[in-house]
Amino acid sequence: MLSSIVAGILAMALASAFAIGxxxxxxxxxxxxxxxxxxxxxxxxxxFTDQCSICKVENGKAICSTPSIAxxxxxxxxxxxxGE
Length: 84
Fold this sequence. Notes:
Shape: globular
Number of helices: 1
Number of domains: 1
Distance between the termini: 65 Å
Mean pLDDT: 79
Low-confidence stretches: 13-20
Order of helices and strands: HEEEE
Radius of gyration: 19 Å
Structural class: alpha+beta
Strand content: 15-25%
Strand order of the largest sheet: 3-2-1-4
Number of strands: 4
């Protein structure tokens, strides 16, 4: 009896994880497009943040920290320009 309850809970958890997977992937794709647009608009930006991650531009590519677990993303803001 207990094993069937645990199996049911596990099945529901897995189903919900797969159900939100595509939405999370779309959010990640949108965030990537927003970051690319920001960097095109701010070519001299060396470091920037969205209040969740801190990013640094190296060799033309953004390298970002892992976002905090409970953050609310905001628009990107340049925190340091090249040469500063």
